[in-house]
């Protein structure tokens, strides 16, 4: 038994309760009332992305703990393990929420994405290793803030507003820096450290990167096409 599993369970329950309370905290506009569960789901995802400590401390922690850049396997700052466990709880909650409320053909991409993240982060939580690597992966949450905000503006029928256009530009910029560049760095790290990582773990990481990279490139193309080329 790992204490991290208790954090995962607590995180799952907390995000589940938040999901239920959000319809009262942030009532859906008329344009989103036909899809109330989606409105709650996106706001829950935004809450995870914007959590104090969910993403902004990652660069700071790497500055305060420069040894992490050399050892992402056994080195991690205090609180990093709990942070990864909290994220596992969120991704589990989001997986269950989509599975219960959305048709499979509409959500299979995100379900597949969440499955990969849960497995990879779960290994870090259970083994207390590769937490630094998972912390690097959480840098993508910087972009997720603007990605979820874009969905909220779409559901609120605010596409033709300055706020949406500004968010589109920031979303695309942070996508390149915190998603594509981060995944490229993680892939490079795996390649350079293949002799220092057990074969099973290396295989999981390589498969994860091989899945995540094309998915993020496809999503980038969709964002570019829908927000700038149409």
From TrEMBL:
<dbReference type="GO" id="GO:0005886">
    <property type="term" value="C:plasma membrane"/>
</dbReference>
<feature type="transmembrane region" description="Helical">
    <location>
        <begin position="169"/>
        <end position="187"/>
    </location>
</feature>
<feature type="domain" description="TLC">
    <location>
        <begin position="34"/>
        <end position="230"/>
    </location>
</feature>
<dbReference type="GO" id="GO:0007009">
    <property type="term" value="P:plasma membrane organization"/>
</dbReference>
<keyword id="KW-0812">Transmembrane</keyword>
<keyword id="KW-1133">Transmembrane helix</keyword>
<dbReference type="InterPro" id="IPR006634">
    <property type="entry name" value="TLC-dom"/>
</dbReference>
<feature type="transmembrane region" description="Helical">
    <location>
        <begin position="133"/>
        <end position="149"/>
    </location>
</feature>
<dbReference type="GO" id="GO:0097035">
    <property type="term" value="P:regulation of membrane lipid distribution"/>
</dbReference>
<protein>
    <submittedName>
        <fullName>TLCD2 protein</fullName>
    </submittedName>
</protein>
<dbReference type="Pfam" id="PF03798">
    <property type="entry name" value="TRAM_LAG1_CLN8"/>
</dbReference>
<keyword id="KW-0472">Membrane</keyword>
<feature type="transmembrane region" description="Helical">
    <location>
        <begin position="199"/>
        <end position="224"/>
    </location>
</feature>
<dbReference type="GO" id="GO:0071709">
    <property type="term" value="P:membrane assembly"/>
</dbReference>
<dbReference type="GO" id="GO:0055091">
    <property type="term" value="P:phospholipid homeostasis"/>
</dbReference>
<dbReference type="InterPro" id="IPR050846">
    <property type="entry name" value="TLCD"/>
</dbReference>
């Amino acid at each position: 038994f790992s204490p991290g599993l208790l954090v995962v369970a607590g995180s799952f329950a907390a995000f589940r309760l938040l999901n239920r309370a959000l319809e009262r905290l942030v009532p859906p506009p008329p344009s989103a009332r036909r899809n109330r569960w989606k409105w709650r789901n996106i706001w829950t995802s935004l809450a995870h992305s914007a959590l104090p400590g969910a993403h902004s401390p990652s660069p700071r922690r790497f500055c305060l703990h420069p040894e992490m850049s050399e050892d992402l396997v056994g080195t991690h700052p205090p609180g990093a393990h709990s942070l990864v466990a909290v994220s596992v709880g969120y991704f589990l909650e989001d997986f269950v929420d989509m599975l219960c409320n959305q048709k499979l053909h509409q959500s299979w991409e995100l379900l597949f994405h969440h499955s990969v993240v849960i497995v990879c982060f779960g290994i870090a939580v259970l083994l207390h290793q590769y937490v630094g690597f998972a912390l690097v992966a959480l840098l993508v949450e910087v972009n997720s803030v603007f990605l979820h905000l874009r969905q909220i503006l779409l559901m609120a029928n605010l596409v033709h507003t300055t706020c949406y256009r500004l968010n589109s530009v920031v979303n695309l910029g942070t996508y390149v820096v915190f998603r594509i560049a981060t995944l490229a760095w993680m892939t490079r790290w795996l390649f350079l450290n293949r002799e220092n990582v057990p074969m099973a773990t290396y295989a999981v990481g390589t498969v994860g990167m091989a899945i995540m990279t094309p998915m993020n490139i496809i999503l980038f193309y969709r964002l570019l096409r829908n927000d700038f080329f149409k």
